[in-house]
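Blinded run. Sample ID left blank on purpose so nobody reads anything into the name before looking at the predicted structure. Input follows.
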Amino acid sequence: MNVAFVLLTHNPDEPAGIERSIAALAAGLRELGHRALIIAAGPATAADGEDLLRLTSLTLPRPALEEHLTHLLADPTAVEDEVRGLLAGHAVNLVCWVDAVWGLGYLSPAPAGTATALMVHVPRTDAPLYRSLEHRPDRVLTVSDFMVAELAREGVDSSDWAVVPNALMHTLTPPAPDEREALRKRGPVRIVARAEPHKGIAELLKAYPAGLGRPVQIVLAEAGFEYWPGMQNDVVTECRALAADLPDVEILPAVPWQEIPGFLAGAAVTVVSSTSPETFGNVAAEALSVGTPVVGYGLGHLPALTGPAGRMTALESGPGVLWEAATGLLDDPAAYRAAADQGPRQVAAHTPAAVAQAFLDAIGPAR
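Blinded prediction complete.
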C-alpha cells in the first residue's frame, strides 16, 4: 500500500509533536512493508530522504505563520495541481491531510479514486476544519480519546472518528534500578518543550523553589512555525533571563530527536507544565519509556497517558504545586520506584509498527 502524508511544515528533525508523530507513523508503515511518503513545502534540507517529497510550487519562510500560508495560497491552483500530480505519479492509495491548514485538508486536492483521511491533532473549530470535513474524507483520525470528547464538546460531530495514538520512534533501555535510585537522590530535573507560551516554562521558572538542591535543565526548541511574529524568540529570551537569576537552572538549545530519550533517561523527573491540554504528550511518552516519572497538570490526554507513572496536579493550583509534586515524589523512595517501574509499561504499545497497524485498521474501510 502506498500512503502519503501531507504536512507542509515537515522537516526531518523538526522539534514539534505533529511532525514527530508523522515521522514515527511513516517509519512504522515502512516496517510493515508499505510505502510511506511525506509531502512538504520547500525549501529542501540536506537531511531530506527519498520519501520526503518537496513541493516546488510552495516555499515557506522559517518560521512560518498561518497568515503566510494564507497569502501564499491566495490562489492555490499551482499547489493543488502539484499535489495531485505527486499523488498520481507515486500511485498513492491513501492520502492523509495531517492538518486542516498545514496539511491542506481544507483544499483536499486528491486525484479521483484516491482514498482520503483527515488528521485532527489539535482542537480547532474554525472555518478550515469545517471546510476539511465538507470534503467528506473517507476517515477522520485523531490521537486520543480526549480529542474525540473535546471536539464533541465544541459541537463537532466526532462520533465516528478513529483514535490512532502517537508512536515512539526512538527508544532505549531504561536505567537499571540502582541507576534510577541514584537519579532519584541526586539527578537533575530535565524538561523538553517547544518555545511556545502555553508550554508554561516561564511560569514554572517564576515559581522555582528555593533549596531545590539539584540541577534543572530545560531544552527549549524553536520550530519552523509560530503563532505570531517573534513568539519563539520572545519565549526563549524570557526564559533565559529568568534562568540567569536562578541557581543551577540552565536553558539548553534543541537536540536531535534521537537524543531526547537518552536526555530524559538521565533525569530524576520531568515536568510537563503546559497550561493548555496536551492532546497526546510526546515528551511525556518518551520520558515514561525510559522510566522517568512525569509531573504535570491533569489536562488533556496527559493523565491517561501517564497513569500511575507520575503525578498530576490541578492547573488552578499553579506552577508551585508542580514543583511540590515533583519534590514530594522524589522524597518518597517507594512511590518513586513504583512510578519509574510503571513508566515503560504505560507506553509499551506505542511502537511504530503497532501504531502503524492501528492506523491501517482504522482506515481499513476507507481503502
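Unblinding after everyone has recorded impressions. The chain has 14 helices and 13 strands.
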